């Protein structure tokens, strides 16, 4: 099975227990390194695994949701998925476990609701089935938003070190390009281009986000918009996935107040 390398990885995963004694139990957790994390769960609490999974393995990491902008966003998603009855966003939406529904099916149904409501429905998330045999289809009425792809295969996290202040300062001072929207000089680490290769658009991340949000003034994170240069219809998630390094610097558009 092929693996996908992802930089600056933040993911929330679902474990499935394959031990006959505990078969069918599930566990939800957060990680920046899924391959290391599943090893910790299977080795036990002394190796960094969780108390609830210790000595109950083997566990299989069957599903992971990744693409969160930072660890706080991922941890809040983890908590809500673990405690839907306590989450102010979920407690009125989530039904109790159905009579013939097992723990795994119930967790997937909760996830389906979460991906369709704010603030998560506006993030550039990817639903990744790590083990094909566990893959199930989402209910027709609870499909994830169109900008969230459903993929299959293993993932490998890659941490990208932040440039030093000295390098960042040098890079910033040497840049002479101006934003096509605000016409101010741009930092090279804060530039978005149109995904249309024939388009010459260069803009600050926040400027393009503000441009997209003109039609949705009540939101802080855009879903889609028209390129101010070539007029192509663009999905914000596509821009973010292509320029994920820039996405990490987007403080205002990803203000933590929208992730609570």
Summarize this entry quickly.
Its cofactor is a divalent metal cation. The chain is an alpha+beta fold.
Mind explaining what this structure looks like?
With 260 residues, the chain is an alpha+beta fold. The protein folds into two domains: 3-158, no CATH class; 165-250, Zinc/RING finger domain, C3HC4 (zinc finger) (Herpes Virus-1, 2-Layer Sandwich). The chain has seven helices and eleven strands. It has helices at 34-43, 71-82, 103-115, 165-174, 205-212, 236-242, 244-247, and strands spanning 3-7, 11-17, 26-31, 59-66, 126-129, 150-152, 154-158, 191-193, 202-204, 224-226, 233-235. The protein has a five-stranded mixed sheet with strand order 3-2-4-5-6, with helices on both faces. Strands 1-7 form a two-stranded parallel ribbon. A two-stranded antiparallel ribbon has the order 8-9. β8 and β9 form a beta hairpin. It starts with a strand and ends in a 13-residue tail after the last helix. The model is unreliable at 163-174 and 245-260 (pLDDT under 50).
Supply database-style keywords.
single chain; 260 residues; alpha+beta; Herpes Virus-1; 2 domains; five-stranded mixed beta sheet; 11 strands; 19% strand; disordered C terminus; Structure-specific endonuclease subunit SLX1 homolog; hydrolase; endonuclease
- Described by the principal axes of the CA atoms, the overall outline is globular
Helix content: 10-25%
Average pLDDT metric: 82
| Helical/strand content category | alpha+beta
Oligomer: single chain
Low-confidence stretches: 163-174, 245-260
Distance between the termini: 36 Å
Question: What is the topology, as strand order, of the major beta sheet?
Answer: 3-2-4-5-6
Give me the Rg, rounded. 20 Å
Q: Would you list the SSEs in sequence order as H and E? A: EEEHEHHEEEHEEHEEHH
| The number of domains | 2
Q: Give the helix tally.
A: 7
Strand content: 15-25%
Major sheet characteristics: 5 strands, mixed
How many beta-strand runs?
11
């Amino acid at each position: 099975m092929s693996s996908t390398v992802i930089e600056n990885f933040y993911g929330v995963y679902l474990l499935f227990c394959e031990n006959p004694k505990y078969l069918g139990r599930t566990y939800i957790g957060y990680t920046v390194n899924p391959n290391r994390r599943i090893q910790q769960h299977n080795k036990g609490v002394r190796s960094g695994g969780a108390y609830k999974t210790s000595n109950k393995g083997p566990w299989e990491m069957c599903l992971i949701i990744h693409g969160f902008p930072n660890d706080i966003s991922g941890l809040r998603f983890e908590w809500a998925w673990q405690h839907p009855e306590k989450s102010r966003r979920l407690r009125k939406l989530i039904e109790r476990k159905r009579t013939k529904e097992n723990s795994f099916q119930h967790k997937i149904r909760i996830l389906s609701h979460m991906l369709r409501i704010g603030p998560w429905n506006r993030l550039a998330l990817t639903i990744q089935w790590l083990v094909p045999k566990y893959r199930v289809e989402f209910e027709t009425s609870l499909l994830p938003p169109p900008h969230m792809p459903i993929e299959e295969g293993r993932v490998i996290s890659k941490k990208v070190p932040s440039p030093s202040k000295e390098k960042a300062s040098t890079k910033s001072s040497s840049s002479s390009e101006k934003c096509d929207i605000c016409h101010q000089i741009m930092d090279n680490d804060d530039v978005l281009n149109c995904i249309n290769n024939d388009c010459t658009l260069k803009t600050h991340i926040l400027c393009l986000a503000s441009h997209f949000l003109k039609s949705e003034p009540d939101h802080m994170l855009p879903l889609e918009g028209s390129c101010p240069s070539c007029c192509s219809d663009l999905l914000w998630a596509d821009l973010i996935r292509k320029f994920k390094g820039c996405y990490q610097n987007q403080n205002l558009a990803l203000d933590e107040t929208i992730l609570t």
